[in-house]
## 1
Amino acid sequence: MSGKGLNNFFKEYLNEKSIFLNKRVLQASYNPENVLHREKEVNLIANILAPILKKEKPSNVFIYGKTGTGKTLTMKYISDHINDVADEKKIQVKIIYLNCKLKRVADTEYRLIAQLVREFGKDIPPTGLPTDEVYNIFFKTIEDSEVILLLILDEIDQLVNKAGDEIIYNLTRINTELDKSQISLVGISNSLVFTDNLDPRVRSSLSEEEVLFPPYNALQIQDILKKRASIAFNSGVIGPGVIEKCAAYAAREHGDARRAIELLRVAGELTERKKKKKIRLQELDRAQEKIEKDRVIDTIQTQPKQSQTALYCITSLINEMKNKTYTGEIYEKYKTLCINLNLRPLTQRRISDIIAELDMLGIVNTNVVSRGRYGRTKEITIGYPLSMTTKIRKILESELGLS
DNA sequence: GTCAATTCACATGAAAGAGACCACGGTCTAGTG
DNA sequence: CTAGACCGTGGTCTCTTTCATGTGAATTGACGA
């Protein structure tokens, strides 16, 4: 394209009527004005948390439900409203929302507490201080600020998995030592069985109240989609059956509304790129594929070298013969590949864990099988569509610098 | 043929090490008046 | 005299290694029918 041609392209692009009216509505960060089909949960949580406005400590709440069931959205919605009223009536309330999954923000005890202190405007170094020192600073800070602190810990299961349940115990226990301030905890978890493995003391104090978010059913997702679509798209853009199919896809995936919305957005983007005026079922299918593909490729590319090497071995083994392979085979192959790549090979123990990590990411599927006299091992199959193997191998080859 | 013991090839756990990053306080050095 | 450079110590955090223990069914071999 020549310079002039490019100019024309951009001009044309500007003149084109977008099918989107307001794309932001379909993005994950968007907070709708009200939360559909969650009236019961909103009321319940609002009732539990309301005492905070009278300067009384609300019960700790534990919220759980699968991904995309509106937990985070609901909590944000409620806390926004609490903040509004508190501002209006000049009530001292502090609500802190932390996502424990965010790497390097709140995924360890130290970082969580440090982040909390930062929320109060103090500066804490990212490392270097002893943890109890940070606790002391935190303690002093809230005691001085004399507030009821509502601490919302999203994806709390991740935090406990990584750093143990002592943090929660410490946070709940800190109340007994606080004089002028109090802390209430709101734990949000995707895992339904999270509390089972918790220390009984922690469990009882964290889940003084429990709220379960059931998955949306297909009709509810349709409602949500229609609402969002009416704001996001120009009228008449959505073809017949699109919303319904979109909802059906999501309902199959345990009622994940986030996925449904993303699907609709990507379908819209694809439609626009093809300069079509209407989203049809065809684009929806295409979008479904694209999302899956992007997700897999993205996770693979962000893996460390060693994981990529291990994964490359798995794809090689699966490529050259059957459709499954075993830990021992992979490790043998891995060792020789490491020599070729001039990489220090890790121990089998570590590779075993790396395979488990790849399993967690959904890139491979593993299954522990006992082959009787021939030992016990993991049976590994790939977790992405077979049609993607060539592409993925290419990506891995370039990442690893293989010819 | 039956049944318990054996055996394989790892899985799974726990603990500890290596190395990167960082804060803090003390000491040294060079520049300033 | 003082600001800044430069240690040493002690802390967190991630990725690994080392050591130890667990595991489930095919196989083996003793046993009795």
## 2
Amino acid sequence: MADLVYRRVLHDLKSRIHDNQFPDKRLPDERSLSEAYNVSRSSIKRALGVLANQGIIFKKRGSGTFINPLYMKNQTIFHYEGSNLGITDSFKSDGQTQGIKLLSFKVVPANEEMQQDLFLEKGDFVYEISRLRLFDDHPFMIERGFIPIKIAPELSQKVVSGSIFNYLEDVQNKVVTKSFMTMKVAPSNEEDQELLGLKPTEPVAIMEGIFFLDDGTPFEVSNMRLRYDYFNYNTFVTLDEE
Amino acid sequence: MADLVYRRVLHDLKSRIHDNQFPDKRLPDERSLSEAYNVSRSSIKRALGVLANQGIIFKKRGSGTFINPLYMKNQTIFHYEGSNLGITDSFKSDGQTQGIKLLSFKVVPANEEMQQDLFLEKGDFVYEISRLRLFDDHPFMIERGFIPIKIAPELSQKVVSGSIFNYLEDVQNKVVTKSFMTMKVAPSNEEDQELLGLKPTEPVAIMEGIFFLDDGTPFEVSNMRLRYDYFNYNTFVTLDEE
DNA sequence: AAGTGGTCTAGACCACTAC
DNA sequence: TAGTGGTCTAGACCACTTA
């Protein structure tokens, strides 16, 4: 994976940018880069495309490719590297503790919706895992996840009481790299109010997602209900390609 | 712009997907598409790549290209799907009407936070534009935006009563292509309840964003409060290209 | 073994910018 | 007019999945 041509170029250019090797904030033109790296112009383009997506450079047709001055300044805000799809790792824990309380752990037949979402056949089974997430002993999220048993046949109660993604990666060498999420807002229902300690006027954020493995296999559908005051989603959107 | 090959394919495939012309949730393979559209496989790949980025399809190496089942569900009104940064264009208007009611339009000095976000100097001024967005005559969003006067010196009351982004693009040839957004949830306050017609138990979604022009210039900071039942944000996160 | 998506190349032509 | 990035092609080869 790391020996791909465009990736080699990408990493090299990135470190050269960080090393300030382009003091005029301008990169060489694509044809020169192609020659210098001894790769095709398409590969250069691909590497530059990734950098542009990350907001590190700007291309201006007809004039050249330039380093984004904002990127070099305000690194904290605009830097989008190493985000994480898993919940356990999405919360900053500077000394605070995260906890998981297992509410229920069952095996159930996949309903029709689930069959579609997870690419299952009629009669396939899924784990249904309900958990309460705690942050410094305060519950902030109800999580109900469904995972096909045929993808992870030996999930145990112990495993689902911890980070499932970490288990998968460490033990089974499966990596979750994509997710499709949809976010909504709703008034809290009675279960929310009880489990999350909310007043009737206090709402929840709802995140539903499908998580995919590296190869595109849908791995889990998850429904998450969060205390409104623990929800904060940041995103950097670019529209280069419509 | 619209006559690009990959865009033609992209739009065609997109509408075929929406029309449910692939009932088995599977697209033809790339080589067949290439032949069917009479374009190169690279162009097919590019179109499919955009669809994949938008989370509409996903590709499984070795087996094929499939439609994301979650995408077809959850099609509410506010629908950001990376297709457009502007609000006016983010709403599906199949016959429905969108409206904007101007609440206030002032010029004020930029406070310190604004100076940072919009890269302004001490003493610079910004427009403060408050608007109520309507959908089929129902208010669904309160929008308060701040734009530096030095970037758009001749904004008029008429312009800010319509789509500012469209005005910029059509009249000034400036295009907004990037944004940094943060989303939260909160109980509705009295102003929300009055303007959006909410009950005290009904919440709002809050979106705050900085919008950037093509060349990286920050153009607007905006704070948006939406009726909870009009909010639905879909996003597809990939950790692929690092 | 056949079929699928992924990567990469070499080169043509186009559209825009700067001088 | 020269130089830049953008689009597109045709085809080779690789990696993975499925049977």
